[in-house]
Amino acid sequence: MRVVYLALIVLFAAITVIFAFQNLQLVTISFLGLSVRLPLAITIAAFYLAGAVTGGGLFALLRRSYVGSRRAAPAP
User: Fold this and answer.
1) Which tens digit of pLDDT belongs to each residue from 25-72?
2) Chain centroid, CA 44 distance in Å
3) Which of 45, 53, 38, 37 is nearest to 16 (CA)?
4) Which residue intervals of 2-74 are DSSP H helices?
5) Would residue 70 be called left, alpha or beta, if left means φ above 0 and alpha means ψ between -120 and 50 degrees?
6) 8-19 burial, b if ≥16 CB within 10 A, otherwise e?
7) Closest CA to 19 of 1, 47, 49, 39
8) Which of 1, 7, 40, 53 could form a disulfide with 23 if both were Cys (CB 3.0 to 4.6 A apart)?
């Protein structure tokens, strides 16, 4: 099974590298009066990582809130 996981990781890495090389054109990102020109692949990767961090943080906050409410709830 370890070989299957390794093969999937290598395949995903290869697809990611191919995607990055095929999307090198520059795009302009504007936000609150600031503008940045970056390659499309880097822009997508940055937003993906930002989403993973914020989504993971939100999930942890909701889980902590749920566990805390279960402890504070009175027993029936």
Assistant:
1) 898 989 899 898 988 888 888 888 888 888 777 777 777 777 766 666
2) 10
3) 45
4) 2-22, 40-72
5) alpha
6) eeeeeeeeeeee
7) 39
8) 40
